[in-house]
Amino acid sequence: TCCAALSGCTTTRPALAPAPWDQRLAELQHANAWQLDGRAAVAVGTQGWQASLNWRQNGVAAEVHLEGPLGVGALVLRETPQGLSLNGAPPSDTVIAQLQDRLGFELPLDDLRYWLLGVPDPGAAFDMTRNDQDRAQQLTQAGWTLNYDRYMPVNGDLLPARLVLSREGVRVRIAVDHWEGLR
């Protein structure tokens, strides 16, 4: 009779409980090595463009590849302690101006490292609302507003799959296809 009683029971695997926000925030703000592959669509006023996006973060160094359709308009940014370089040129103070001319707006590269992970830059004030999964839903920082539309499971956590950055006539949509190596 015990077996008959047990056969009517079903077992379900408990869902992984998300880490509390404060713990998750600290872990992601200190994440040293990660990469993502995705796509970016940018609208600046009436102009727009789309590109594949590959971001590789390794400690304080980052390498960002943006490539338009058929390889048109490829940009490779490298940020290291020595400075920011564009397309293999040595780091220079003029890179930010060159980048702004090419993109049509000032890319918040230092902040974006954190925003892509769904957390604010720890070095600046911010406002944020969280969704029912205790993840960022809307983040306002450094004059930008970020809306996190969708998350994806990555190594037992949820990381942004789709976000929209907007500021004064600039709208950047980022769709992440793949996360890797978050530690």
In short:
The chain is 17% helix and 46% strand. The chain has helices spanning 2-7, 21-29, 95-103, 109-115, and strands spanning 33-44, 47-58, 61-67, 75-80, 83-86, 126-130, 136-141, 144-154, 157-167, 170-180.
Q: Helices and strands in order, then pairings?
A:
Layout: H1 2-7, H2 21-29, E1 33-44, E2 47-58, E3 61-67, E4 75-80, E5 83-86, H3 95-103, H4 109-115, E6 126-130, E7 136-141, E8 144-154, E9 157-167, E10 170-180
Antiparallel strand pairs: 1-2, 1-10, 2-3, 3-4, 4-5, 6-7, 7-8, 8-9, 9-10
What is the share of helical residues? 10-25%
Report the C-alpha radius of gyration, rounded.
20 Å
Strand order of the largest sheet: 5-4-3-2-1-10-9-8-7-6
- The N- to C-terminal Cα distance equals 50 Å
- DSSP strand tally: 10
Number of helices in the DSSP assignment: 4
Order of helices and strands: HHEEEEEHHEEEEE
Query: What amount of the residues lies in strands?
Result: over 45%
Largest sheet: 10 strands, antiparallel
Q: What structural category characterises the helix and strand content?
A: alpha+beta
Task: Categorize the overall geometry.
Answer: globular
Write up this protein.
A 10-stranded antiparallel β-sheet has the order 5-4-3-2-1-10-9-8-7-6, with helices on one face. 17% of the residues lie in helices and 46% in strands. The chain has helices at residues 2-7, 21-29, 95-103, 109-115, and strands at residues 33-44, 47-58, 61-67, 75-80, 83-86, 126-130, 136-141, 144-154, 157-167, 170-180. With 183 residues, it is of the alpha+beta class. The protein has 4 helices and 10 strands. The protein starts with a helix and ends with a strand.
